[in-house]
């Protein structure tokens, strides 16, 4: 057990400490009165607990875990109506929470009619609230049981789309029956299919896109209705979207296994098939590239999709600054390499272009196996939270709870940042960057609480003494970005999300926009063992007290490789967990206006990297 200093000890007596900072080849010592802080460094392991998970204070910090089990999560922000976030997962169950930390299970939320009783593969429910009619709509797919009364040789469809409605986010949701669709199908439950198969097939044929009936198909029809001359269009992972500017409704889904499709909805029950479009083809940047290749041409393939199982699924649309971002999962959910990509368009129905490595095409992944602490992060949804006067974009996704069997999955959360990058056409393009997937202790989101991540309060940073690598800058430590990739999207990561590279022991000062109450600080380390820092020294918090400046000091905060590594029982080796670092938690410090700290470059290293600095403190709207 490691507990160097206890928070309850409070602030120690006034002492005089030297603050060291390097200046060229000389070492300059600055003496000033400082009060040493007692702190907890996050390295205490409770007996009988998971050895990979040290104790942390849930009021101030968070950690992705397996507490919220489930796959294919859709998180609905229903706080304006009942104060809760709802997480809907495969199996048609849900949980709800007021803070994204403590969840209460609600069980099943769909009341299936007798015709659909015994269905399985009840996958990937997504729920949306429609302000116009005050109803909640749930979209999902299922495999109905065989209808013995339908006749001999008549099979049950796979992945039949269903829409259900409710007046409450918790249900019960009741599937909608359509008397005017699929009337020629003898199965009793055909009336519950959201899509009319004939209309769907006609829309695809009208699009006139070549397709294969092999395992690399972008469009699949399950035969076996009667003597194999009819069938059901196979589709999964439905995702509704309301354009925030026009109010128009759209529905997206996976034409499993290899494509994402979309259609404009007249209302949530009625597709306008004249607007139908195939939006992505697995392995290709655009549909035009796919068509060109199918017609004998040569095109560049998408490397990450070529490395994974053939699949585009789990779509989710988001609009930002006038552009539409279609995000979707690639690979098999049974594999560790499952991940999320992004594509962009000027229209909600395309044409879409998958982003390149330089544009951060992959936003969530296990880094082609290099991130040994995460397996299969994917099938996601986005939502926003309001904390400390800021709207933060969040991603909810699932990951494997067992890194060796890939069997069970649990829901996890990380923050998404918009970054203005150089697009493929040379023009500025906003793209998404996920600070994740994280596994180690992170600053709390603080939803519904007094304390949490207030890193946005940092206004500027300057180098006081020391030296940075050529081309690097101190601003990288407060740009809000850190990377969990060492292989994926490296062209983007190195240009926009790289750590500050420090080549000589250096002292920095961070200025806050206004004095704030702090409870903790975190320093994110480099993902490369060659450039990891070992300690942060002389962390000085400059406060205003009774019109005077007072300094509180943490003489040294060490990076614990024990808390930031994971043991692989197959290889028998320890691996660094990406997105980790060291942190200190302490009793409240009021009116902190600046923070100084020194990053040591130990002997034998040419440089060290600090990816990011994060602050935990009291939110502005709760601060006196």
Structure description:
- This protein is mainly beta.
- Helix content is about 5%, strand content about 45%.
- It contains five helices and 36 strands.
- The strands form nine sheets. Strands 1, 2, 28, 29, 30, 31, 32, 35 and 36 form a nine-stranded mixed β-sheet that branches. Strands 18, 19, 20, 21 and 22 form a five-stranded antiparallel β-sheet that branches. It has a four-stranded antiparallel β-sheet with strand order 4-5-6-7.
- The longest helix has 11 residues, at about 195-205.
- The radius of gyration is 27 Å and the shape is elongated.
- About 45% of the residues are buried.
Question: What are its keywords?
Answer:
5 helices, five-stranded antiparallel beta sheet, 624 residues
Classification by helices and strands: mainly beta
- Number of E-type strands: 36
Number of helices: 5
Which percent range describes the beta-strand content? over 45%
Short overview:
With about 625 residues, the chain is mainly beta.
Secondary-structure map:
Layout: E1 11-23, E2 26-37, E3 61-62, E4 74-78, H1 79-82, E5 84-89, E6 93-97, E7 104-108, E8 120-130, E9 135-143, E10 160-166, E11 174-175, H2 197-207, E12 221-223, E13 231-233, E14 236-242, E15 249-254, E16 259-267, E17 270-281, H3 287-294, H4 303-306, E18 312-320, E19 323-330, E20 339-345, E21 353-354, E22 362-364, E23 378-387, E24 390-400, E25 409-422, E26 428-434, E27 442-443, E28 451-453, E29 458-468, H5 490-496, E30 500-525, E31 535-545, E32 548-558, E33 565-568, E34 573-576, E35 581-599, E36 608-618
Parallel strand pairs: 2-32
Antiparallel strand pairs: 1-2, 3-27, 4-5, 5-6, 6-7, 8-9, 9-10, 10-11, 12-13, 14-15, 15-16, 16-17, 18-19, 19-20, 20-21, 20-22, 23-24, 24-25, 25-26, 28-36, 29-30, 30-35, 30-36, 31-32, 31-35, 33-34
């Amino acid at each position: 057990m490691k507990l160097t200093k206890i928070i309850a000890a409070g602030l120690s007596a006034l002492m005089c400490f030297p603050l060291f900072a390097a200046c060229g080849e000389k070492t300059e010592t600055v003496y000033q009165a400082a009060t040493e802080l007692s702190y907890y460094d996050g390295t205490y392991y409770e007996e009988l607990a998971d050895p990979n998970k040290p104790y942390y204070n849930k009021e101030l910090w968070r950690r992705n875990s397996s507490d919220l089990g489930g796959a294919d999560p859709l998180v609905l922000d229903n706080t304006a109506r009942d104060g809760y976030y709802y997480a809907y997962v495969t199996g048609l169950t849900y949980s709800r929470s007021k803070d994204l930390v403590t969840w209460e299970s609600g069980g099943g939320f769909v009341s299936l009619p007798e015709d659909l009783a015994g269905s399985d593969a009840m996958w990937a429910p997504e729920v949306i609230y429609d302000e116009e009619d005050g109803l909640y709509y749930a979209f999902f797919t299922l495999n109905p049981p065989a209808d013995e009364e339908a006749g001999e040789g008549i099979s049950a469809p796979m992945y039949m789309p269903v829409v259900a409605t409710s007046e409450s986010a918790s249900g019960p949701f009741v599937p909608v029956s359509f008397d005017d669709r699929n009337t020629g199908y003898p199965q009793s439950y055909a009336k519950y299919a959201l899509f009319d198969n004939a209309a769907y097939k006609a829309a695809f044929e009208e699009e006139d896109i070549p397709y294969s009936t092999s395992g690399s198909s972008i469009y699949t029809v399950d035969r076996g209705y009667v003597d194999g001359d009819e069938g059901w269009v196979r589709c999964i992972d439905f995702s509704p979207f309301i354009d925030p500017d026009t109010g128009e409704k759209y529905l997206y889904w996976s034409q499993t296994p290899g494509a994402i499709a979309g259609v404009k909805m007249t209302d949530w029950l009625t597709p306008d098939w004249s607007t139908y479009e195939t939006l992505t083809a697995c392995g290709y940047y655009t549909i035009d590239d796919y068509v060109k290749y199918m017609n004998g041409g040569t095109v560049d393939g998408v490397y990450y999709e070529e490395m994974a199982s053939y699949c585009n699924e789990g779509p989710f649309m988001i609009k930002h600054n006038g552009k539409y971002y279609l995000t979707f999962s690639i690979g098999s959910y049974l594999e560790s390499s499952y991940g999320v990509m992004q594509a962009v368009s000027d229209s909600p129905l395309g044409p879409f272009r998958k982003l390149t490595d330089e544009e951060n095409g992959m936003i969530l992944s296990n880094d082609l196996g290099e991130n040994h602490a995460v397996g299969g992060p994917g099938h996601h949804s986005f939502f926003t939270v309001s904390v400390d006067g800021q709207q933060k974009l969040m991603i909810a996704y699932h990951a494997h709870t067992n890194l060796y069997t890939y069997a069970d999955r649990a829901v996890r959360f990380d923050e998404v940042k918009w970054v203005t990058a150089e697009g493929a056409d040379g023009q500025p393009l906003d793209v998404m960057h996920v600070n994740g997937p994280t596994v180690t202790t992170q600053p709390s989101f603080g939803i519904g609480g007094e304390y949490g991540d207030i890193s946005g309060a940092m206004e500027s940073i300057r180098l006081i003494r020391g030296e940075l690598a050529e081309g690097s800058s101190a601003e990288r430590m407060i740009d809000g970005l850190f990377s969990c990739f060492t292989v994926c999207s490296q062209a983007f990561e190195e240009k926009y999300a790289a750590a500050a590279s420090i080549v000589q022991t250096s002292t920095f000062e961070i200025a806050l926009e206004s004095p704030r109450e702090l409870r903790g600080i975190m320093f994110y380390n480099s993902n490369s063992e060659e450039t990891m820092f070992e300690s942060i020294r002389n962390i000085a918090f400059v406060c205003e007290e009774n019109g005077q400046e007072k300094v509180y000091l943490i003489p040294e905060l060490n990076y614990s490789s024990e808390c930031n590594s994971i043991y692989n029982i197959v290889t028998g080796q320890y691996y660094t967990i990406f997105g980790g670092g060291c942190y200190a938690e302490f009793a409240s410090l009021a009116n902190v206006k600046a923070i100084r700290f020194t990053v040591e470059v130990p002997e034998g290293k040419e440089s060290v990297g600090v990816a990011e600095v994060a602050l935990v403190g009291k939110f502005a709207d709760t601060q006196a």
